[in-house]
């Protein structure tokens, strides 16, 4: 079945090869220090979501520790009775939460890059006494199958949505296929079990019975599970009652990737909103009529260097067309920020105009990044460089000077008194479909990012996330 799905995927569905090109693809040598773009946005599907409102209005805050890996941030999930700990990507660009599932049978195709990098924890359904398969009448079952996704086993088998909608149905929810923007696919069954989450003071845990998630037996290019933080009914914040409140995170700098000694908090609930400082700048959350489950913000201009000159970006980065395409997705599941052509090339030219270091063309060829420079590093030690600051201007006069290490980043340790640094932005693949740009997790390092779902806005505040973590006792010495 998985192979069949794969063929469908490769042959029938060019749409799925969307937006997010992988730096890794042009790097056959595997020398790349930084990771590949984690896939993100699930297949954009028109949906009309009604959030389930039958939740207590007062939910306790939740705080989980995010760990950084080379291409994203992991959140630990404790599922089942007794609880099994599974680390999954925290992804604001999709809704479904899923874990690799099965005794010995979890299969990940085209995952060689990861196999040695991660110790995979696999959820064992037979070890949990509280687990059961979601039923066909569950709103989540309808949700996960309510797509035009021709890979969906339900669709392949010819069972229609209207069959599912007959709520008398008491059969188990048919297995699903869920597709991600960069080409990943996961297939599995919708399952319910107890999820244990942490409160905002140490030692306090909360049990969420009947949490609905995917028990995934086979995937294509998705080796680790994902916690969906989108706005759809299936998402983790939605099921836990945080969709009317919000959440916040402070992503550690890349140098802490795979460091077991430090993590940073992901906060859900009132505290995520109330702890924001006066200097927090808020830009409105835009709602795409076509993709209402994604978080969009509007980018208006970019400034390179210290000048007061703003370079306007295409209006597609702050507006939707009549079909709902356009806007800038803010997505923790995409590694690098993606900008549309021809603006992306214009930005490269602007940068080339003010940077005087020699280019490192061979590194560009090897890594797939478009702008790399050789920076002198006497005695092979890192010294201050002179890259211009890059400032993003979002709607509502939000001026975000990106922390320096969020754009030009060292590809390897200094050698021969030189270090090569590359601009970690990428161009959006051609195509008129979906978002016009993506604000990725690499550019969200050392920023406090607040998803204020009450007031429909997203806040930014530069912050040293390692210090913030240390002050909260999350830095093991
Ligand atoms: C899973 O593994 C356990 C112990 O190895 C075994 O007892 C059980 O039958 C297995 N379950 C399935 C569904 O394979
Ligand atoms: C936990 O959350 C409650 C309610 O939002 C708040 O009053 C309290 O200060 C928080 N405690 C900590 C340690 O953050
Ligand atoms: C983490 O802490 C341990 C114990 O202090 C130390 O040996 C190790 O080098 C640290 N790891 C990193 C990556 O800093
Ligand atoms: C490089 O190392 C040499 C010898 O250790 C030292 O004399 C020199 O000052 C160093 N240069 C810089 C720029 O640190
Ligand atoms: C920009 O301003 C900062 C401090 O205001 C200064 O350190 C830096 O050299 C300036 N950069 C350029 C390219 O003018
Ligand atoms: C935008 O913000 C800047 C400071 O960041 C301020 O000087 C300017 O007056 C603001 N403009 C508007 C239209 O609010
Ligand atoms: C350092 O320079 C030597 C001689 O020019 C060269 O052979 C070597 O490949 C260089 N090493 C790196 C890491 O660039």
UniProtKB/TrEMBL annotation:
Biological process according to GO: proteolysis
UniProt keyword Acyltransferase, yes or no: no
Any one of the GO CC terms: extracellular region
Keywords: Aspartyl protease, Glycoprotein, Hydrolase, Protease, Signal
Active-site residues annotated for this sequence: 91, 331
Domain of life: Eukaryota
Signal peptide location: 1-23
InterPro entries in alphabetical order: Aspartic_peptidase_A1, Aspartic_peptidase_AS, Pepsin-like_plant, PEPTIDASE_A1, Peptidase_aspartic_dom_sf, Plant_Aspart_Prot_A1, TAXi_C, TAXi_N
CDD domains: pepsin_A_like_plant
MF terms in GO: aspartic-type endopeptidase activity
PROSITE patterns membership: ASP_PROTEASE, PEPTIDASE_A1
Domain (Peptidase A1) ranges: 73-461
Family: Belongs to the peptidase A1 family.
Name of the protein this chain belongs to: Peptidase A1 domain-containing protein
Organism per entry: Turnera subulata
């Amino acid at each position: 079945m998985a192979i069949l799905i794969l063929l469908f995927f490769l042959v029938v569905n060019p749409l799925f090869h969307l937006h997010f090109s992988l730096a890794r693809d042009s790097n056959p040598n595997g020398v790349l220090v930084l990771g590949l773009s984690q896939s993100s946005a699930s297949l954009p599907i028109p949906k009309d979501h009604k959030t389930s409102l039958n939740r207590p209005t007062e939910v306790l805050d939740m705080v989980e520790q995010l760990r950084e890996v080379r291409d994203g941030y992991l959140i630990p999930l404790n599922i089942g009775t007794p609880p099994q700990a599974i680390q999954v990507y925290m992804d604001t660009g999709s809704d479904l939460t899923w874990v690799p599932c099965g005794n010995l049978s979890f299969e990940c195709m085209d995952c060689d890059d990861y196999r040695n990098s991660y110790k995979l924890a696999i959820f064992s359904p037979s070890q949990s006494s509280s687990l059961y398969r979601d039923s066909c009448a569950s709103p989540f079952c309808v949700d996960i199958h309510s797509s035009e996704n021709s890979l969906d086993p339900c669709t392949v088998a010819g069972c229609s949505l209207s069959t599912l909608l007959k709520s008398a149905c008491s059969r188990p929810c048919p297995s699903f296929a869920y597709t991600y923007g960069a080409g990943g696919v996961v297939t599995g069954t919708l399952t319910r079990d107890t999820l244990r989450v942490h409160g905002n003071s140490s030692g306090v845990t909360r049990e969420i019975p009947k949490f609905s998630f995917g028990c995934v037996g086979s995937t294509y290019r998705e080796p680790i599970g994902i916690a969906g933080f989108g706005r759809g009914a299936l998402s983790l914040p939605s099921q836990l009652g945080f969709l009317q409140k919000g959440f916040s995170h402070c992503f550690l700098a890349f140098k802490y990737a795979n460091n077991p000694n430090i993590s940073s908090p992901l906060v859900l609930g009132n505290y995520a909103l109330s702890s924001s400082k006066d200097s927090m700048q808020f830009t409105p959350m835009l709602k795409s009529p076509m993709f209402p489950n994604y978080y969009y913000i509007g980018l208006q201009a970019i400034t390179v260097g210290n000048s007061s000159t703003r370079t306007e970006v295409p209006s597609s980065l702050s507006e939707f067309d009549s079909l709902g395409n356009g806007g800038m997705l803010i997505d923790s599941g995409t590694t690098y920020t993606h900008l549309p052509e021809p603006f992306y090339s214009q930005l490269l030219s602007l940068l080339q105009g003010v940077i005087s270091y020699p280019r490192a063309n061979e590194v560009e060829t090897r890594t797939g990044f478009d702008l790399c420079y050789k920076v002198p590093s006497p005695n092979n030690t890192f010294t201050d460089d002179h890259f211009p600051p890059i400032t993003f201007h979002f709607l509502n006069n939000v001026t975000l000077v990106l922390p320096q290490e969020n754009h030009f980043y060292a590809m390897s340790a200094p050698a021969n008194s030189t270090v090569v640094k590359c601009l970690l932005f990428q161009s959006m693949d051609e195509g008129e479909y979906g978002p016009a740009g993506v604000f990725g997790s690499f550019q969200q390092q050392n920023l406090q990012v607040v998803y204020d779902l009450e007031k429909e806005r997203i806040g930014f505040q530069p912050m040293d996330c390692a210090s913030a973590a240390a002050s909260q006792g999350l830095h093991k010495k």
